Amino acid sequence: xxAPTATTTSAAAPxxxxxxxxxxxxxxxxQVAEVAGEHAERADNEAEFPAEALAEMRRTKLLGLLVPxxxxxxxxxxxxxxxxxxxxxxxDMSVAMIFAMHCQQVATLVRHGSxxxxxxxxxxxxxxxRYLASVTTDAGNGGQLLGSSDALEANAGELIVDRFAPVxxxxxxxxxxxxxxxxxxxxxxxxxxxxxxxxxQLDLETAGDWQSLGMRASHSVPLRLKGRVPAYHTIGEDGGxxxxxxxxxxxxxxxxxSASWLGTAAGALSRVLHLLRSPASRARTDLTSxxxxxxxxxxxxxxxxxxxxxxxxxxxxxxxxxxxxxAIQLQLNALKISAAEECYRAxxxxxxAVGMRHGYLRDSPTRLERALRDLRSAALNYxxxxxxxxxxxxxxxxxxxxxx
Length: 404
Hints:
The chain contains eleven helices and eight strands.
């Protein structure tokens, strides 16, 4: 039986206003995906961070995709980020999520960072010298993005960081961190600041291991971070992370995550179809089976629904200057929830379609087993349950039921 072709660029991702032309974002993503694919099995087996893929992101300057050309970057758009995340996800979901979350940090810096910080930092990101990790999880607030148990302390023009986070994707391998903490002298627990810290400005302590069901190569270990940063490392207003989150941080996360999940499920479907259409498979598989055809149809339908919502939400984010309206927030949350659920269900459907040998065993060229384990994390990654609670309140604010 011939192995399915690992197609990383055959399906188009949403990109209404892509900017990078030469080389194209697809070409750069393909180069990174090829390297990621060579090491993905080992990284998954050993729960190792995909160091080779990160090195290729540095070499190709894909890490600087969203850095404006004035700072030496590729000047890419949100559509470019979505396309690259989607293409990487077709090969390795951990790598796609690592890239998407790095881009989320870069976009936040570009739009909300101080001029002094960006003049120093953005050229280094553009040159591939800075991979950024996000430090937003908190052991004491039940997963709330807008809140932290640990507070900043201001002292003589500096901010003192002492932060524990139970899950930091790629944290041990990052060169810099965007960290949420309760603002110094905050009047309430939700008055949160976002600060940037270089790795050299922090003492890092790894507080545990990362032995997960899926997403094993994301190496999302718990970290304690201690250090001092200049006050101008505050991103946005002191205590004003909420506005940064609404305008940039959350939309970039939902778009990038959803593109990664869609890529993972689309890659899985592609490998299954190549398998079924191979001469060896045709000799022993009834491709006219009503059960098989129905399952393939359902899987494809789920992905088309996610693709349509991703395309529409990307257009909304690109078009709308104010993303705080309830209808837009509901659309963004619907994208995240739907992508997490439907991409997982599509791959689960494929497991039933091809059975034990190619749906459940780890050594099958379909790689459905890893895709299913990885996608199981999607609903837990900023929990769908939490988003439904937020959505319930947003629905009450929109009695006319207006859509974005």
